[in-house]
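User: Here's a protein and a ligand (nickel (II) ion). What would the complex look like?
Assistant: Let me lay out the input and then the predicted complex.
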Amino acid sequence: MAILTILTYPDKFLSHPVKSVENIDGTIQDMIEDMSSTMYEAPGVGLAAIQVGIDQSIIVYDISPRDEKRSLHVLINPKIISSEGTTISEDEGCLSVPDYRNDVKRSVSVLVEGFDRKEKPLRIEAHGLLAVVLQHEIDHLNGILFIDRISSLKRGLYKKRIKKMLKQK
Ligand code: NI
C-alpha cells in the first residue's frame, strides 16, 4: 500500500474525463488499496482516481461518522442514472482544492449505477450527504471540480488567490 500524491487545482489532469475500467484486475485492486489509504490519510470522505493521477473510472468513499467503525465503499464506472430535487450543500470542500470551501447547488437524491470491486453490479439510491459525495466524486471522473459549479465571480476570486500563491512560491 502506498500513499499517493493528490493533484490540486490548477493541474490540467483534473479537467479531463477519465477512461472506463475494462477489467477489474490485480492492478485495479492495488490502485483501490492505494486510493483508500490516501483518502484515509488525507483525511477525506471521498477520492476519485483522477485526483491521484489515475486515468480510470474509480471512486472510493467512506461517510461513516468519525467515532464509528470505518466502512469503505468502492464504485467502478459509476453513472448517475437519475437525479431529483435541488439542495445547497453547505461548505463543500475538496482535497484537490486546498484551503477553500463554498456552497454548491446539488441534487437532493441521485440514483447511481456501477460495479463494486468484485464486479458485482451496484444500484445505489442516495440521499443527503451520500448523494452529495457521489455527485462530487462522479463530477471528478468527468473532469469537473466543485469550483466549476459556483458562480464565476466566486470562482474568479479563488483563481486569483491561487495565482498569487503560486507566484509567491
Ligand atoms: Ni473532490
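Summary: The CA atoms of residues 9 and 97 lie 6 Å apart.
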